[in-house]
Amino acid sequence: MYYVDLNCDMGESYGAYRMGNDEAILPYITSANIACGYHAGDPATMRKTVQLALKNDVKIGAHPGLPDLQGFGRRNMAITAEDAYDMVVYQVGALQGFVQAEGGVMQHVKPHGALYNMAAAKPELAKAIAEAVYRINPQLYLVGLAGSHLITEAEKAGLRTKSEVFADRTYQQDGTLTPRSQSDALITSDEQAVQQVIRMIKEGKVLTRQGVDFAIKADTVCIHGDGAHALSFAREIRETLEKTGVKVRAMSL
User: Fold this and answer.
1) Which structural domains are found in the chain, ordered by start?
2) DSSP for 77-94?
3) What is the tens place of the pLDDT at every residue in 51-69?
4) Which residue of 154, 182, 195, 224 could cross-link 142, Cys pair, CB 3.0 to 4.6 Å?
C-alpha cells in the first residue's frame, strides 16, 4: 500500500479580493497550508479558513511567505537568515493564535513561493526557517521541496519533515521547479497532472523538461489553490489515487 498526503495552499484572499476556491477544494485534500498575511491573507480570512479546515477535518499548516502582497510572495527579495527567522516566527505565531482559538492543533509549516524556493537553494535560509519552526514547536512537520536544503536542514535541526512534490508544476533536471517566468512551468491538463503524481508516488520518478527522469520522494502532493484548475486537479487526483491503491491521508497520521 502506498500512502500520500494531499495539500493545498489556502486562505489567500485579501480584503475584498477573492482568491481560490477553498470551500470546494477542502473535501478532496488532507492538509491545508494557510496564508499568514504577508504574501496573502488577512486576519478575517485566516480565521475563516481555519474554521473551514476544521469543519472538513483537514489538518492545518502555516504558509509563511515574503512581505509582498502585490507580487503574491513570488518575487525574490534580498533577505538575511535573521530576516527569514523573524518572518517565520511572526507569521506562524499569528496563525497559531487562530488555530488555538478555534480549538485546533497545527500540524505543519510550509514556506510559500519565493521564500520556499530561495530556502530550497540556500542552506542558510533553510537553516533559519527550520530553527524558527523548531523553537515554536519541535513537533511540527516542516514541508519542503523533495531533495532540497529545506529538508536536510530541518532534519539537522531535529524536525520531522515531509518531502513535497507538485501536481501542477513541471520540473528541471536538477529537481527544481521550472520558473514561473517560463511558458512551460505550469501543468494545465488534468490527465498530465494525475499521471505525474502517480508516477512520483509509485515509481519515485518525475520526467523533467529536459526529457530525463529525476529520482524524487513524494510524501505530500501540492495543488496550488490559486491555480485555474485547482478544483478539478484536486478531485481527479484524489479519486484516481484511491482507485489505484494509494491511501490518501494527512501527514501526521
Assistant:
1) 2-248 (3.20.20.370)
2) ----HHHHHHHHHHHHHH
3) 999 999 999 999 999 999 9
4) 154
